[in-house]
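Feature request, filed as a ticket because there's no other form

It would be nice if the structure record came with a short human-readable summary line next to the tokens. Right now we just get the raw output. Example of a typical job, pasted below so the devs can see what we mean:
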Amino acid sequence: MAGIEYFGPTSLGEAVELKSKYASEARIFAGGTDIIVNLRDRVLQVKYLIDIKKIPEMQELSYTPERGLIIGGAVTINQLLEAKSIVEHYPILVQAGKSLANTLIRNRATLVGNLCNASPAADMAPASLVLGARVVVVSQAGWREIPVEQFFTGVKRNALKPDELVVRVEIPPVKGKGVYLKKSRIKGHDLAQVGVAGFLSQEGVLRLALGAMAPTPILARGLDIYRREDLKQEEKAKAIIEQVMAQVDPISDQRASREYRLAMARYLLRQVLGILSEGV
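Raw output as currently delivered:
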């Protein structure tokens, strides 16, 4: 990592100026759980690191019934797990967060970093997808919001422009029941072989998302025709699962074969639908 220049801006304006100046030659640094490993292994080569932890906006973690949840770019996973508002209103984020690595990693890893890394197996992505999260980014050109379902563009690729940085993730106020289930080789210490998130709103609208089942985390399409009562009907539940499975395209890798992922996804989808059918 020799030769990398480090910046520690204390204002958002300073960070925006640095990212504009250095663009793709710079990487945003918050938890660093992925970037440090990638730099060490020479998978990633950059000239500049911009540490955002001292920027007040990046440390924001707030909830209001009107606006919902705001998670700043430097908020760690363990901060999420300890926030009463998240435990009460967004327990699916707690489930996903607890499944991510271990306590040491969660003390540094951030939700924003997990999304920006854009791994197909990112644990926080399926939960963010079913909750309708938005990624709020800024550059010298101004602000824009990216729905999280449009944020992932390929394997470890996202929709950020070279001069943009993520300030926060916003999750709208939700009422309903959510669940995240994950299968990995080593419980709590490995990337997902398959991850499935589900959310059933109080109005009965179903959302399902999967990780490690396509080049990107995916939000299943076409589920708006189903309602709460359908989840308890065997034929309807099978139809939901088949509709979701038609949208996935997993690979075989060192963690699992394609065939295993397909079988496990069906199993986890069945489990998720069963939990959601128990009511909100």
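Something like this underneath would help us a lot:
The chain has a mean pLDDT of 96.
The longest helix spans residues 258-276.
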